[in-house]
Amino acid sequence: DIQMTQSPSFVSASVGDRVSISCRASQGIVSWLAWFQQKPGKAPKLLIYGASSLQTGVPSRFSGSGSGTEFTLTISSLQPEDFATYYCQQANTFPWTFGQGTKVEIK
Amino acid sequence: QVQLQESGPGLVKPSETLSLTCTVSGGSLSSSYWTWIRQPPGKGLEWIGSIYYSGSTDYSPSLKSRVTISVDTSKNQVSLKLSSVTAADTAVYYCARGAGHYYSSGVYYYFDYWGQGTLVTVSS
After folding, report:
1. How far apart are CA B69 and CA A104, in angstroms?
2. In chain A, which end has fewer C-beta atoms inside a 10 angstrom radius, N or C?
3. A29 to chain B, minimum CA–CA distance in Å?
């Protein structure tokens, strides 16, 4: 199985801050990576697919980068509605696997 | 607008079989991987397994011996059965659509629509 490791596990940030979350795959997954946002009591929401493609309707302050084993989700200017938990997920090989999550909290 | 709705018992006894149904509306089951994902309380996401609309399946190795996912195209439904459950199977269970994205190297699937999730508690 491909293991996905996110860092950090928690981010404390203020509105307007630039936030970056890293995701590392235990083996190369090319660009077959997605990022999800999950708010308490809600289903995850797809933000980014193919490592850097923005899902329809997602604000442009979200961006993804990386390939191979190292990936990054960046929020350019954190908004109040962005406080949530973020997950990466590899879509390269079965079994599909998720990172453990990164919680973005209000500073 | 595609919508997914999970349904099934919220309480299952240990050693019994958990059965859930995902009803898809606003679209067909064609050309997508229909997937079950679960999330234990306060924890992260775990992929359980997926079924292609044609019926081929892939399961998590850790759950493979206990999981069956099936599709009923006439009812636009996807079903999950998980046998011999224990308290460790207590979780919110989500169904999700894996939509195919086509590239020169192949097709890759991303979960673009999700149900709202249903909490299943395993307890006597």
Report:
1. 34
2. C
3. 11
